[in-house]
Amino acid sequence: MKGIIFNMSGKEIYIHDTVIHSWIIVILLSIFAIYVGNKAKKVKPKDRPKGILNIVEMVVEGIRSLVKSTMGEDKMKFAPYIMTLAFFLVVANLFGLLGLTPPTSDYNVTFALAIITFVLTQYYGLKSKGLKGYIKGFFEPVFFLFPLNIIGELANPVSLSFRLFGNILSGVIIMGLLYNALGFVAPVITPIFHSYFDIFSGLIQTFIFMMLTMVFVSMAMDD
């Protein structure tokens, strides 16, 4: 088993490596954000951004454009969350390239992210429609579909989390099997599989999770 095991008050406590990797990613991204923020404060408004600031600006503008086209200009307040989600998922999904277990291969991590989306969906749906409109939405288009609408709403975080978890975990399992089967020639053959399971699949799953989050929240707010 991977992770950390320590004793506390006579009880054995086990912390899975995906939890440790999640915290490492959070710390690294926090340091990166502070670094970029400090550099941005030193740049004059009329100066053209260079180096890392230029790349970050392109990413920010791309995410803002995606949020605007998907959710509408009136929902740009969600852009910071979507960008944070994108950075975390990209780094987490690419962790396999370092020989480490991607945090998103743990269902606890993906389900936690899906729960955040679910809470945002319900909160802003209730806030934008009011209690009456929110409850009324579960009885549309016809009242007897109420049970199905409830089930569908509860199924969203489950499907969202399983989609990300399943794709990343399958890549981890397949790569593990390849390394065991190929032995010493694995470093020569496996890079092409890493490019698909870690890079291509990781980026695609990040985009899908972002898009579904935006769609769910936007649909809950709109009539």
The helix/strand order is EEHHHHHHH
**Coarse morphology:** globular
Mean pLDDT: 87
Structural class: mainly alpha
Write a concise synopsis of the structure shown:
This protein has one domain. The protein is built from 7 helices and 2 strands. It has helices at 17-42, 52-71, 79-93, 107-137, 146-182, 186-189, 191-221; strands at 3-8, 11-16.
Explain what this protein looks like in three dimensions.
- The chain has 7 helices and 2 strands.
- It starts with a strand and ends with a helix.
- The model has no long low-confidence stretch (mean pLDDT 87).
- The protein has one domain (3-221).
- It has a two-stranded antiparallel sheet.
- By secondary structure, it is mainly α.
- Helix 1 packs across helix 3 (79-93), helix 4 (107-137) packs antiparallel against helix 5 (146-182) and helix 4 packs parallel to helix 7 (191-221).
- The protein is globular, with a radius of gyration of 21 Å.
- Strand 1 and strand 2 (11-16) form a beta hairpin.
- It has helices at residues 17-42, 52-71, 79-93, 107-137, 146-182, 186-189, 191-221, and strands at residues 3-8, 11-16.
Could you name the key traits of this structure?
2 strands, 223 residues, mainly alpha, two-stranded antiparallel sheet
Topology:
Blueprint: E1 3-8, E2 11-16, H1 17-42, H2 52-71, H3 79-93, H4 107-137, H5 146-182, H6 186-189, H7 191-221
Antiparallel strand pairs: 1-2
Helix pairs in contact: 1-3, 3-7, 4-5, 4-7, 5-7
